[in-house]
Amino acid sequence: MNFHQNPITYVAQVNLKVAQLQRAITFYKEVLGFRVMNQTDQTAHLSADGQTTLVTLEQIEGAIPKTYPTTGLYHFALLLPTRADLANIVNHLLQKGVRFASSDHLVSEALYLSDPDGNGIEIYADRNHSEWNWRGGEVEMTVDPLDFSDLHAEAGEKHWTRLPSDTVMGHIHLHVSNLVETEQFYREGLGFDVVCRYGDQALFMSSGGYHHHIGLNTWAGVGAPSPKEKQVGLKAFSIQFPNEAARNKVVDQLRQMGASVSQEGEFYQTKDPSDNHIKLEVS
């Protein structure tokens, strides 16, 4: 089952603020294998298939480095089509001398690294959804060591040259300041379902029975402040709705709960209680 197309509501892309555009482009092309769709002096749109933007980079004049703790991006996650693709990028990262962490989450296997501005990135492959274990409406996820020996057996003959064309934005994971009010915003406002809780520190939400499209945590501290405007990091992320009616319903829900929603022509934007900016888009 494809959890990143109609009629599912999902995270489609992220917009990142960076200090040096060319440095960031070099990383995303040479380390991860993105294609640059178009570029200006200040921005670049990155794609896996050459047609769909997954990541937008925007150079900020007078940019300041990431500070901690603040709300904002914990990581964005690129979902690879197959386990073999994950095995191949492991070999590629090792050959490039890139440091990364890893984990087996039961529902998926994942690698973790950061770009030159400290933006967290997850690269993962899902296990078949028939293997996910659901109990009481929640999916079982854990943080176990990744079995690299078993993964290596999946590696194909070809070397990693670029992201597979059907790579998608799998999910986004955010630092927030208050989990209770943030859950209400994403559940009652945006319409996502809670599918897993990690104590009172983190929760995971999705549409259509996915293990998660949105991750939220208070690991930066309850009451963590928003990042400064010129700080590198997340500028916004996009949520893709299956049709105009679904988006209009969400816009109404957000306004009824007192959330800020702005409109420019056909485009809608909102922000969660921790000042994470969100674009509301239609397929």
From TrEMBL:
Pfam families: Glyoxalase. Keywords: Metal-binding. Residues 272-283 have a biased composition (Basic and acidic residues). PROSITE patterns: GLYOXALASE_I_1, VOC. Residues 10-126, 168-283 form the VOC domain. InterPro entries: Glyas_Bleomycin-R_OHBP_Dase, Glyas_Fos-R_dOase_dom, Glyoxalase_1_CS, VOC_core. SUPFAM superfamilies: Glyoxalase/Bleomycin resistance protein/Dihydroxybiphenyl dioxygenase (SSF54593). Residues 262-283 are annotated as: Disordered. It comes from the Bacteria. This is VOC family protein. It comes from Alkalihalobacterium chitinilyticum.
